[in-house]
DNA sequence: AGCCCAGTGTAACTTTTGTTACTGCCCAGC
DNA sequence: GCTGGGCAGTAACAAAAGTTACACTGGGCT
């Protein structure tokens, strides 16, 4: 456990803090597709992502979940932070993108550390900043880009967090996360294939260099 | 000055903190249209909004500024906070929506107070949370709403922050902030007028109850 | 083998949004 | 009173995205 934490956070937290984290936190392992946080849930423990990736989604009014961004090793969810500190309900949904693990920290500890460790304070602020930045990117995507560009970005992001240029998703799943329809996704993917950007197979898409 | 701060923040900060703020901060008065923060700027002092309203914009790649949200009395800009703490460039533009004033606080003080005043720490976190929330609303607007709904929301927001149901903007200006074209705005506004939701005049729009 | 069905390809059409172009109107300044 | 320019109304068209409908296909299951 301590080893895992060190791997993910060794370069930003001091020894003492890592020891404390290891002591008070509980390890949670998750599988692809696990729902880690639901909209409307209260969050009592703050998660630190150790391995794997998590996707953060915003629910559509009717159906589908818009993908906001991914979290990777060393990240924490500022939305969750917000909920812990503010004692409010979660406004987002978090689903495991792939297999991984996280350390859960009691809220009271994270407040205590704010005073005690400068590195922790930095981490918390950096997390907020990163998340605000990611939200800005999400806004840019939605406001300034056409569907084809958004889709291509999506494929690249997906390839990155999974460390593989093979994307194992159906067109329908992609459509949900981009808040569009399956037909539109199929259409654009076919166009990408004709342009030589991807190779389409059943149940997977290969991103070509 | 101290009086102004007390009016805007009296219910959340303790006496001692308000005194300190009054001592170290400088008062800045601004007029409608003043550019308070530019994209790419470094920010060395953190602003606390005392009176008036400020709009926060995200620049389009080609042209136009998408409106993200408004700040009002008692708010601070988390983006700015992010820049102060992280010592990075601003990713957004801030323009005065109307006449007002703000207190500028040196960065080193705001860090010092994080340890010293619990109310300050709360304020900083609450600000971050509010901003994340606003960003989520912006995403919702962009992702899930059609232009007509976005426009109507825009008019309502505008009326609210200006405390008047008369909106003094040209269709072109509105189009910029919604990242669309003037013709589209005119078209939709005309439809709203026919539905009895607004009254169109030259250079202003009256929002009807 | 035969069947089923999720996943995909595609056509045809609609809706929404963006673009271009032109008209008229109001008002400030001469 | 005349005029020019900013602003708004509108038509006509183009592009992007969403919708409906249907055909095909490859695997898993009986």
Automatic annotation (TrEMBL), chains A, B:
- Entries under PROSITE patterns matching the protein: CNMP_BINDING_3, HTH_CRP_2
| Species annotation | Flavobacterium beibuense
Q: Which SUPFAM superfamilies match?
A: cAMP-binding domain-like, Winged helix' DNA-binding domain
Query: Which Gene Ontology CC terms are recorded?
Result: cytosol
What's a Pfam family this protein contains?
A: cNMP_binding
Print the keywords alphabetically. Answer: DNA-binding, Transcription, Transcription regulation
Name of protein: Nitrogen-responsive regulatory protein
> Where does the HTH crp-type domain start and stop, copy by copy?
145-209
Identify the residues that the record assigns to the Cyclic nucleotide-binding domain, covering every copy: 13-76
Q: Which GO terms describe its molecular function?
A: DNA binding; DNA-binding transcription factor activity
Superkingdom field: Bacteria
Position of the signal peptide: none
